[in-house]
Amino acid sequence: MIVIGGGLAGLAAGAALAESGWRVRLFEQRPFLGGRATSYVLPDGEHVDNCQHVTLGCCTNLTDFYQRVGSADKIKFFDRLFFLDPQGRRGEMQAGILPAPFHMTGSFAKFAPLTLRDKLSIARAMLDILRAKGKPRDLDAPSGISMLEWLSRRGQTQGAIDRFWRAVLVSALDEELDRTDARFGVDVFWKAFLSNRAGYRMGVPAVPLANLYDGCKFEIEKRGGEVTLRAPVRGLKIENGEIAGVRFDDAKEETADAYIFAVPHTALAELLPESVKQSDPYLSNLDKINVSPITGVHLWFDRHVMKEPFVTLLDTTTQWIFNKSALYADSNAAGKTAAGEQYLQLVISASYDLLQKSRQEIIDLCLQEVRHALPAAREAQLLKATVIKEAAATFSPEPGVDRFRPKQESSVRKLFLAGDWTATGWPATMEGAVRSGYLAAEAVLRVHGTPKKFLQPDLAPDGFVAIWLGQRKDAVADR
Fold first, then answer.
1. What is the Cα–Cα distance from 28 to 35, expressed in whole angstroms?
2. N or C: which end of the chain has fewer CB within 10 A?
3. In this structure, are 415 and 276 located in the same domain?
4. Rounded Cα–Cα distance for residues 291 and 293 (Å)
5. What is the pLDDT of residues 197-213, one digit of tens each?
C-alpha cells in the first residue's frame, strides 16, 4: 500500500491500514508531517503553528485518531467559550445544569454582546433546526442555498448575524455566510450546540501541532511500513484503467497493490492525465471546488497581556486570540518564549481582504485591535511578530459544492482518494480530513475482500433531544 500525502487524511488512512496488517509506505513532499495542520521552528527556536487548529466534542473521528496514535493527552479541553465586543462587553457560552437542547440557555440569556431582540431571533432559528432534525429526512437546509439566505428567511437581526452566526460559522467553516452552503452551517449548530451537552467543548493542542504526529510515524514503521519525507510525486503511471505506479524524482518509480492519494484536490488535478479526468465526472470537476484562505498572526509581548486561554473578538478583523503561552504552559516543547513574556496567536478565517496586504499592514491592523480588546497590551512592547498566509487553506463550502466532491473509491482501479474535500458529509475541518482517511482505508479493505469499519458514529444526542428524537422515530414507524 502506498499513501501519498502526510496530512491528517493520509496519516489517518495509513495508521488504520497499518493496524489492519498492511505494509504502508507513506510519501510526503514536505520535510514534516501534518500538512496544513502542522508547525515549524523559527530561526530563534520558537515553535509556530501555521494556523491554530482546534477540535470540538462532536469531532468523534478526530478524537479516535488522536487516541489511535497516542496524542489524546496532548489536547486540552475547555468548557467555557469567551467573546468580547469592541465596547468591552463580554459574553460566555457554557453548558449549565439543564439537559440538551437547553444546556446553553443560562449563558445565552446573559450574553451581553447580543440584545434581547437578537436573542429571540436566534432562538427561533434554533427551534427551526430542532424541528427539522426531528423529521424523517433532513429538510432543514435545502441544497444550494447559502447560510445567509437561510438566516434571512428566518428573520435574523443584523446583530444576531454579525455577533453570533458569523462569529461561530466563519471560524468553523472558513467561509463567509453568503458563500457557505446552509447545510454545513445548520449541521455545525446541530452537532456542536444542540444535540449533545458535550458537543461544543473545545479542544486545543497543548503542544506545537507537529508534535501530535510522532505516533503516526511510529504506528506505521513498527508494523514494517515506511514514512518518507521530501518525496514529491512527479507523475502517475496508468495502464488499462488501472494505476500501475507513481514516479518520483530521479525517475524513481514505486508500485503497490493499492494507492491512496491524500493530497489537495488542486494537486491531484495536476497529476491526473486528461484522459482520466475526462472519463470521470467527479475528477473532471475538481477545478469547480474553490478554496478559501486563513491568515495567522503571531505576536510576542514583553509582558502578560491576557489571562484567558482564548477569546473570540466580535466586529473586528481579528476573530480569535489564542494565549499560546498559557496553552503551552505544561509542554517541554513550548519554544523560546522567556518567562514574563507572552506569545499570542491570532486567527482570521476567510481572510480574502488580507491576501493583498503586506505583512506589516496586517500586523499593524491586528495589533491595534488587540490593544483595543486587551487593555494590558496598550502599554506592552511588541517584541516580534510574524504572519502566515494560507491562500488555499481549505476548500470553500459553497452552496452545492457536494455535487463535485468525489467518493474515496475512484473510477481508476487501485486508486483511492482521501482529503477533507472528498465526500465525507463534513466541511473542511480536521474531523473531515480524518473521516476521509478512514473512509479511504475502508474502501481499500472492502475492494480486497476484508471489510472493516474505522469511521466513528456522530456524537449521540442526549437529554431531551434523545427522548424527542426517539418519540419522532416511533411515530414515523407507526405510520
1. 9
2. C
3. yes
4. 7
5. 999 999 999 998 888 88
